[in-house]
Design brief:
The complex is a heterodimer of chains A (about 80) and B (about 575). With about 80 residues, chain A is mainly β. Chain A has a single domain, classed as Ubiquitin-like (UB roll) (Roll). Helices cover about 10% and strands about 40% of the residues of chain A. Chain A is built from 1 helix and 7 strands. In chain A, strands 2-1-7-4-5 form a 5-stranded mixed sheet, covered by helices on one side. A two-stranded antiparallel ribbon of chain A has the order 3-6. In chain A, a hairpin with a 2-residue loop joins strand 4 and strand 5. Chain A starts with a strand and ends in a 5-residue tail after the last strand. Chain B has 3 domains: about 200 residues, Aldehyde ferredoxin oxidoreductase, N-terminal domain (Aldehyde Ferredoxin Oxidoreductase,  A, domain 1, 4-Layer Sandwich); about 160 residues, Orthogonal Bundle (Aldehyde Ferredoxin Oxidoreductase Protein, subunit A, domain 2), CATH 1.10.569.10; about 170 residues, Aldehyde Ferredoxin Oxidoreductase Protein, subunit A, domain 3, CATH 1.10.599. Chain B has a 6-stranded mixed sheet with strand order 2-1-6-3-4-5. Chain B has a 6-stranded mixed sheet with strand order 8-7-12-9-10-11, sandwiched between helices. In chain B, a hairpin with a 2-residue loop joins strand 16 and strand 17. Classes of the chains: A mainly beta (about 80), B alpha+beta (about 575). The interface between A and B is medium-sized, with 23 and 39 residues.
Chain lengths: ~80, ~575
């Protein structure tokens, strides 16, 4: 069993923060095996991919088909407009 | 039609105020806001007018949606010739002033001339008066607004300048409702040069639309299905501070005068840190999004800080103390300084100091000196006198253009184009200078799935975004509402009571972009003015996802040439006669 820590930002925060899953360090997502694709994290948290701007793994922007492994910190950013 | 069909013209030299019919032929082609006001300025201003002379004009424009119940339509456009760039300057400001001006009976206010002594303007429907502002001169925006509300009623809307505008600082802003600003390009100093301290406005008429019940139904539908949706609600839930983590993760957060794109202190100045202050919400007229996050820490009240302030006055100055940034933000708001340019010029001064080029007495991360800068700049004292000239003039004086982060004299906002090449082109070609409000390809590149390090298709991407924003900001719809041009067409057809097809709006968008360009061309702007700072072309980023990347000069030049070609401009960046004919100009 492996665990990653997922943070969701902006309008996606309801998928973790408001449900009480995220206590500050991210919501734990557990999975069998050694690695998991980021896209699969979306489905586990019921996040529609078209609402995702991009993801960062351990603080660095990464592709959505990147593999994550035990202990990784995944940040999922919502779409934004303007600046 | 939703226009008032009336323009108010005030001449501060003669002390006169008169109304005239709105030029409806121009309104047909330029709609309102940015587009219509620039058309007026282009026609009325002679080439070469000094921005701070009495010959320059300040135009405050509403749009065809102002004062209606259409969502996110509450902003005001302010147009003038910029003292920072010598070119066109278009700003916008949130709050309630625009609706008040429309309710007072005017589509537009044109301020001309120069008062002999400090003055402020009071507009109460058709009663227009110029008052003595001697007692207000020298006061900050907060006190000015408070006093004027006390004198003219809390229900009035006020635009005012602080000491920075009075002292003609090149990046002085105009403030309203304490924490809203028309920030960029020195618009506050144009007001200061006219000795105009403030404008107070109240109106009590309505705005007519052809079919109110249809507009009500459309507004309800749009608000539910198109505004309060996941792709817009970020503005309500956390606001722009959310972008700190995004930029930092993408490696484009300006850090220590853009020497890097990853800031080690980002977690201390991000949205999470601001949310711990439990900000209250504020909204502009007719806005369902309510993006304003109002915080108050021990008397330092601000809305925000917004992303641009956190980036330029935070990471760009090496400052990770949120309370210090909030105080800096509050001081800038009160003194009437643009936080983007103030943070940018300060980061530039810090780098010059640390490189031993010129000792401004400021260092990255040194909060003690950092906190004194807004006041020194606004009052033009000590090092503030030099810093108030802006980055471009300082760079020329000290021969430091390579790390002067400006375009056309306007300091850049918070996105490093080495991690988003299309953003580099957007900066270079923005008519008001280094600006993120003309196009924001960051969303697709650094924050999206489009490869930031190719030039294929990028000229078209930037151009499309510029045309889209040109019409959006002329109808005056807020940047934070991500709506399609088809939705704009639906709204305009309802408000005008005639079919306003997408093609008409698209053509108007291109026409508006072109008139902005023509203004600058008349002032002598050419291809050499469409540049990006040397640092981005020569120095690779050090950290994060785009580490090792720069913007190769040949790629930039190639992209710019393609952009001119698609635009129908010649090699020097001037729109061709054929293009002007095509656009009915």
């Amino acid at each position: 069993m492996a665990v990653i820590w997922v943070r969701t930002h902006g309008s996606l925060s309801s998928h973790s923060v408001k449900e009480g899953l995220d206590k500050g360090d991210g919501a734990p997502v557990m999975f069998q095996g050694k690695k998991l694709k980021v896209r699969e994290v979306f489905s586990r948290l019921h996040i529609q991919e078209e609402l995702v701007s991009f993801v960062a793994i351990n603080g660095v922007k990464s592709a959505k088909d990147t593999w994550v492994t035990d202990g990784d910190k995944v940040t999922i950013f919502a779409l934004v407009a303007g600046g | 039609m939703s226009y008032k069909r009336k323009v108010l013209r005030v001449n501060l030299t003669t002390g006169s105020a008169a109304t005239e019919p709105l030029n409806e032929a121009w309104a047909e082609k330029y709609f309102g806001g940015r587009g219509l006001a620039v058309k007026y300025l282009y026609e009325e201003l002679k080439e070469g007018v000094a921005p701070l002379s009495k010959e320059n004009k300040l135009i405050l424009a509403t749009g065809p949606l102002t004062g209606t119940i259409v969502p996110c339509s509450g902003k005001l456009a302010i147009i003038t010739k910029s003292p920072a760039t010598g070119g066109i300057l278009d700003c916008s400001i949130g709050g309630h002033f625009a609706a008040q001006l429309k309710f007072a009976g005017y589509d537009m206010l044109i301020v001309e001339g120069q008062a002999k002594t400090p003055a402020y303007l009071v507009i109460d429907n058709d009663k227009v008066e110029i008052h003595d502002a001697s007692q207000l001169w020298g006061k900050g925006i907060f006190e000015t607004e408070s006093q004027l509300h006390g004198e003219h009623g809390a229900a009035t809307s006020v635009l005012s300048i602080g000491p920075a505008g009075e002292n003609l600082v090149s990046f002085a802003c105009i403030g309203s409702e304490y924490y809203r600003q028309a920030g960029r390009g020195g618009v506050g100093s144009v007001m200061g040069s006219k000795k105009l301290k403030a404008i107070v406005c109240s109106g009590s008429t309505g705005v007519a639309v052809p079919d109110m019940s249809r507009l009500l139904e459309l507004t309800k539908k749009l608000t539910k299905e198109n505004v309060l949706t996941d792709d817009n609600l970020w503005a309500y839930t956390v606001g722009t501070s959310n972008i700190v983590d995004m930029s930092n993760s993408a490696g484009i957060l300006p850090t220590r005068n853009y020497q890097d794109g990853v800031f080690e202190g980002a977690a201390k100045i991000n949205a999470d840190s601001i949310q711990k202050l439990h900000p209250k919400k504020k909204a502009c007229f007719s806005c369902a999004l309510g993006c304003g996050n109002y915080s108050d820490i021990k008397g330092s009240a601000v809305e925000g800080p917004e992303y641009e302030t956190l980036a330029l006055a935070g990471s760009n100055c090496g400052v990770d103390d949120l309370r210090a940034i909030i105080q800096f933000n509050a001081d800038c708001d009160d003194l009437g300084l643009d936080t983007i340019s103030t943070g940018n010029v300060l980061g530039f001064a810090m780098e010059m100091t640390e490189k031993g080029i010129k000792d401004f007495g400021v260092h990255f991360g040194d909060i003690e000196t950092y906190s004194k800068i807004p006041s020194l700049v606004a009052y033009q004292k000590g090092v503030g006198e030099e810093l108030g000239q802006g980055v471009k003039k300082l760079a020329k004086k000290y021969g430091t253009a390579d790390f002067a982060i400006e375009v056309k004299g306007l300091e850049l906002p918070g996105y490093d184009p080495r991690g988003s090449w299309a953003m580099g082109l957007a900066y270079a070609t923005a008519n008001r200078g280094g600006c993120h409000m003309s196009a924001w390809p960051i969303a697709d590149e650094a924050f999206g799935d489009v490869d930031p390090f190719t030039i294929e298709g990028k000229a078209q991407m930037v151009l499309d975004a510029q045309n889209y924003n040109a019409i959006k900001f002329s109808l005056i719809l807020c940047d934070f509402w991500a709506l399609s041009i088809e939705t704009m067409s639906e709204i305009m057809s309802c408000v005008f009571g005639r079919d306003v097809p997408v093609a008409e709006l698209e053509k108007a968008g291109e026409r508006i972009w072109t008139i902005l360009r023509l203004f600058n061309v008349r002032e002598g702007f050419r291809v050499a003015d469409d540049y990006i700072p040397g640092r981005f072309l020569k120095e690779p980023l050090k950290s994060g996802a785009p580490a090792g990347k720069l913007f190769p000069p040949e790629k930039f030049n190639s992209m710019l040439r393609e952009y001119y070609q698609i635009r129908g401009w010649d090699d020097s960046g001037v729109p061709t006669p054929e293009k002007l004919k095509e656009l009915d100009m």
